[in-house]
Specification:
Oligomer: single chain
Helix content: 40-55%
Radius of gyration: 34 Å
Distance between the termini: 33 Å
C-alpha cells in the first residue's frame, strides 16, 4: 500500500457540520449488528470477577432524565474494569412491589383507600399492580440502549418472581431464627391515607416545611401545695393530641418556678425557670421554686373531657418524670399522649398509665366524640384551639414553622400512631453495622461518618410490616396459642401442609388461604396478614437475583458475586437502598453487600428547581439525547461539575458541553484528517520491535506503553531495569517476557530505544504526554473520580 492510499484510507474527511445524534445511532447499530457488548463480556469471561449491582427501578412510570445520571456511572466503571481485563457481569433488575405501585393503581381505578381495594378484590387489584410494573419496561429499555448503557436486560431479575420472593422468605427466616424479627406494639409513623406504617428510612424521604399552631395551654392544678392557686403552662404543636392527654412530663433535675402576673389578682403559672423570661416576657414576678422531682404526682385538670379513661391504680392526669424533657424550647412541661408519641408511651408505661386512642385508622376522630367527631386529625386543630380560647384555658397561640413528616408517596401528613407491627431489631446489630461501614469506601468520603454514619449511630429498629396488598407476604404463620412458624420456601410450605405447593403464587390472596397444623400444638396456623417493606425486597437482590439458596446454581453464582465491588445511586439512597443492602447483608451474612459506593447529587432543572410536571420544567431524556447527543449528556453527568453535588441540567448546559468538549475534540480530529490527506501522510507504523511484540503476544501479557517510554527516555536500559521500573509502578511485566525478548537478536529495550531515537521530538513529547494522561486518568478512575478524569481528557484534547 502506498503512503497516499494509506493516508486516505486512515483519514476520511470530517464533515463540517457533524450530526452527533446521527453518528451515535450508527455506532449503536454497529454494536447491535456485531454483538459488541456480548463480545466484550466473552473476551474477559476468564478474568477475575469485579462485581457490580444494579439498583432496580420501578417501571410503573416513565423514565426521566435523572435516570440517565446514575446509569452513566454504572456504565463507565464496569466498562473501565472490563478494559482492564476483569469479568464484569451486568445484570439488570426491576423493583416490582410496594406502596408507590399500589397508589398509582388506586389512582387509575379512582379509589380513595383500602376499603375500595377490599371491595374490588385483592386478587384483581394485585393483578393490576403486576401489569403496571411491566407497562414502561420498553421505555426504560429504549433509554438504556439510546444512552449506550451496557447491561443485561434479557436476564434481568424481577422482585415479584416466585424464586425471588422465596429468597426473601429464606432471609426473613434466618433473621427470625436469630430472634431479630418480632412483633411489638409501638408508636410508628403512619399514613392514614395509605393505611400503613412507614419505616424510618421511608420517613426520612418525606419531610415538608409547614406552619402549625404552637399553643401554650393552662392545666389548673388540683393537688399539691399549689392546688387551686396555679396552673401548669404546657406547650404543644399538636393541639389535636390534647384530646388524649394522659399526663404532663417534667425533667427531674430542672428547676421550675411559680410566675405570677404583676397585676392585682394576677394568675400564677408553673414553668421551667430557664424559659420563664423567654416565654412570659416582662410583667411577671418569679416566686417559689421546685425541682422537677418535687412536682411528681401533682394532679391537674385535663384540657378536654371528650374521651373516657379506664380506671387504673393511681388514676391518671398527674405529673410524671422524664429525662428527655429539655429547656431548649416550649415551657419545660411536656404534654403526654402515649398513643401518639414513642417517648410518651415509654414514660406512661413506666407509670402504668393507659393508652387512649380516639383516632381511627383513616386519620379521623371517632364519630361518637363531641366537638371533633369525624374530623381529620389536623383539621381538628382549629376547632380545639378555638374551644380552649373560649374556655379561658389558652395562654398563647403562635405560628410555628417547622419540618413535618409526610407520606413520601401520597404527601399526606403522617401521625405517630400506636399499633402492633413487625420489626427487625437492627438496634441489636448496631456495632456490626458500624464495623461494616468502617470497611466501606464512600464517595464522597464525608458521607461515611456524616449523613450515613449519623443514620447508623441513631439507628432504630426497622418497621418491616405493611398492612397492604401488593408486596412480599410476611412468611409467618401463627396459631391461636401464639406459636410462630416462619417459612423459608414453598417446598417447606408443602411439607407443612402435606400437599404440593411448589407452583403456588407466593402473593396475596393465594398465600393467605394456606393453613396448616401448628408444629408445636397442632392447632390451625394462619398467615399473619401483613406484607413487608419493599425496601427489604430491593436490599435482598445480592442473593435473591439468583434465587439463592433454592435455585439450581444459585449458591455458586452468589459465592462469586458477593459482596459487590461497586454500587451507585443518588444521595437519597443513603437511607434507602444503601441502608437496606448493608443491613440485610449484615443481618444474614455478617458482611455488608458492597465495598465501594458512589453517592450522586440530584439533578435539578436549569432554573435550579426540582424537575416537576407541575412546574413545567421536565426534560424528557430521549428528546434531550436526540437533540444534543447521548455523549454530551453522558459527559455532563460524569464530568460537568462535581457529581456529588446537585447540578442544573438543561439545553444550555448540555450545548455548552457539546461546544467546549466534544466539538473541540472533533475539530482536532478534523485538523489531523485534513492535513494528513493534504500531505499524503500516514503513521510510520509500529515503533515497538517485532521481537517484543512477539514475546508479548505469545504470553498474552500487556506491556504498558508508558512503562517502556519512561525507561527508554533515560538511556539504553537493560531488561533488568525494565522489570525494576515495572515493580516501582506496580505494573506486571514478567521477567521471563523480558528474557524471551532479550534472547533474540536485539532485545526489547535496545530496539525500542533505537526506534524512539528515530522519532521527531514532538512525536516523542506527544507519546510521553499521552502516557502521562493514561496514567493519570487511570488513577482518577481507580478513585471513582470522573470529574478529574474528564478534566484531564478535555485539557489534553485542547
Amino acid at each position: 500500500m502506498t503512503t497516499d492510499s494509506a493516508s486516505r484510507q486512515l483519514y476520511r474527511p470530517v464533515p463540517t457540520q457533524l450530526d452527533l445524534p446521527a453518528m451515535e445511532r450508527e455506532i449503536l447499530a454497529f454494536w447491535e449488528e456485531n454483538g459488541t457488548f456480548a463480545a466484550s463480556l466473552k473476551r474477559t469471561e476468564a478474568g477475575a470477577p469485579w462485581t457490580f449491582y444494579e439498583g432496580p427501578p420501578t417501571a410503573n412510570g416513565m423514565p426521566g432524565t435523572h435516570h440517565i445520571e446514575a446509569r452513566v456511572f454504572k456504565d463507565v466503571f464496569p466498562r473501565f474494569k472490563t478494559m482492564q481485563g476483569y469479568r464484569v457481569d451486568r445484570k439488570a433488575g426491576w423493583d416490582c412491589h410496594g406502596l408507590p405501585v399500589e397508589l398509582a393503581v388506586e389512582k387509575e381505578l379512582g379509589f380513595n383507600g383500602k376499603p375500595d381495594i377490599e371491595a374490588y378484590g385483592v386478587e384483581a387489584f394485585n393483578a393490576r399492580c403486576r401489569e403496571s410494573v411491566t407497562r414502561h419496561v420498553d421505555e426504560f429499555t429504549e433509554l438504556t440502549e439510546r444512552m449506550g448503557y451496557w447491561v443485561n436486560l434479557d436476564k434481568a431479575y424481577w422482585t415479584m418472581e416466585p424464586d425471588y420472593v422465596e429468597s426473601v422468605w429464606w432471609a426473613l427466616k434466618q433473621i427470625h431464627s436469630k430472634g431479630l424479627l418480632v412483633e411489638d406494639y409501638r408508636v410508628a409513623p403512619y399514613c392514614p391515607r395509605c393505611g400503613t406504617t412507614l419505616s424510618d428510612h421511608e420517613l426520612a424521604q418525606g419531610y415538608e416545611d409547614v406552619t402549625d399552631a404552637s399553643v401554650y395551654v393552662r392545666f389548673p392544678l388540683v393537688s399539691g401545695p399549689l392546688a387551686g392557686k396555679a396552673s401548669l403552662l404546657v406547650w404543644t404543636t399538636t393541639p389535636w393530641t390534647l384530646v388524649s392527654n394522659t399526663a404532663v412530663a417534667v425533667h427531674p433535675d430542672v428547676t421550675y418556678v411559680v410566675a405570677t402576673e404583676d397585676v392585682p389578682g394576677g394568675e400564677s403559672l408553673v414553668i421551667a425557670e430557664p424559659l420563664a423570661e423567654k416565654v412570659l416576657g416582662d410583667g411577671w414576678l418569679l416566686g417559689r421554686t421546685f425541682s422537677g422531682r418535687e412536682l411528681e404526682m401533682w394532679r391537674y385538670q385535663r384540657p378536654f373531657e371528650l374521651v373516657e379513661f379506664p380506671d387504673v391504680v393511681g388514676g391518671t392526669h398527674y405529673i410524671v418524670l422524664a429525662e428527655y424533657v429539655t429547656t431548649e424550647d416550649g415551657s419545660g412541661l411536656v404534654h403526654q399522649a402515649p398513643a401518639f408519641g414513642e417517648d410518651d408511651m415509654a414514660v406512661c408505661r413506666q407509670y402504668g398509665l393507659p393508652m387512649v386512642n380516639p383516632i381511627r385508622p383513616d386519620g379521623t376522630f371517632d364519630e361518637s366524640l363531641d366537638l371533633v367527631g369525624g374530623l381529620f386529625f389536623k383539621t381538628a386543630d382549629k376547632v380545639l384551639v378555638d374551644d380552649l380560647v373560649k374556655r379561658g384555658l389558652m395562654f398563647r397561640v403562635l405560628d410555628y414553622e417547622h419540618s413535618y413528616p409526610h407520606c413520601w408517596r401520597c404527601h399526606t401528613r403522617l401521625l405517630y400512631y400506636a399499633q402492633p407491627s413487625w420489626y427487625i431489631r437492627t438496634t441489636k446489630i448496631k456495632d456490626a453495622l458500624l464495623r461494616e461501614n468502617k470497611n466501606t469506601n464512600w464517595y464522597p468520603e464525608n458521607i461515611k461518618w456524616g449523613r450515613y454514619g449519623d443514620w447508623l449511630n441513631n439507628n432504630v429498629d426497622w418497621a418491616l410490616s405493611r398492612s397492604r396488598y401488593w408486596g412480599t407476604p410476611l412468611p409467618i404463620w401463627r396459631c391461636a396459642a401464639g406459636h410462630q412458624t416462619c417459612v423459608g420456601s414453598r417446598a417447606e410450605l408443602s411439607e407443612l401442609t402435606k400437599r404440593d405447593l411448589t407452583d403456588l403464587d407466593p402473593h396475596r390472596p393465594f398465600v393467605d388461604d394456606v393453613v396448616f397444623a401448628c408444629p408445636n400444638c397442632q392447632q390451625v396456623a394462619h398467615r399473619v396478614p401483613e406484607v413487608i417493606d419493599a425496601w427489604f425486597d430491593s436490599g435482598s437482590m445480592p442473593f435473591a437475583q439468583w434465587g439463592y439458596p433454592h435455585a439450581e446454581g444459585s449458591k455458586e453464582a452468589f459465592a462469586t458475586a458477593y459482596p459487590a465491588d461497586f454500587i451507585c445511586e443518588a444521595i437519597d439512597q443513603t437511607r434507602g437502598w444503601f441502608y437496606s443492602l448493608m443491613a440485610i447483608g449484615t443481618l444474614v451474612f455478617d458482611e455488608s453487600a458492597y465495598k465501594n459506593v458512589l453517592c450522586l447529587g440530584h439533578i435539578l432543572a436549569e432554573d435550579g428547581r426540582k424537575m416537576s410536571k407541575h412546574l413545567g420544567n421536565i426534560l424528557e431524556p430521549i428528546p434531550l439525547m436526540d437533540t444534543h447527543g447521548a455523549d454530551a449528556v453522558r459527559w455532563f453527568m460524569a464530568a460537568g461539575g462535581s457529581p456529588w453535588s446537585s447540578r442544573r441540567v438543561g439545553h444550555g448546559t448540555i450545548q455548552e458541553t457539546v461546544r467546549k468538549v466534544l466539538m473541540t475534540y472533533v475539530n482536532t480530529v478534523a485538523f489531523q484528517s485534513l492535513y494528513a490527506r493534504a500531505n499524503d501522510w500516514a503513521p510510520a507504523g509500529d515503533t515497538v520491535p517485532e521481537e517484543l511484540v512477539s514475546a508479548v503476544s505469545e504470553r498474552h501479557e500487556p506491556i504498558p506503553e508508558e512503562l517502556v517510554s519512561a525507561v527508554s527516555e533515560r538511556h539504553e536500559p537493560t531488561p533488568e531495569e525494565l522489570v525494576s521500573e515495572a515493580n516501582e509502578r506496580h505494573e506486571r511485566i514478567p521477567e521471563e517476557l523480558v528474557s524471551a525478548a532479550s534472547e533474540r537478536h536485539e532485545g526489547p529495550a535496545t530496539g525500542l530505544h533505537q526506534a524512539r531515537s528515530r522519532q521527531h521530538v514532538l512525536d516523542r513529547w506527544l507519546v510521553s504526554a499521552r502516557n502521562t494522561l493514561v496514567r493519570q486518568v487511570t488513577e482518577a478512575l481507580e478513585d471513582f473520580d470522573t470529574q478529574r478524569a474528564g478534566a484531564l481528557l478535555a485539557t489534553f484534547a485542547e
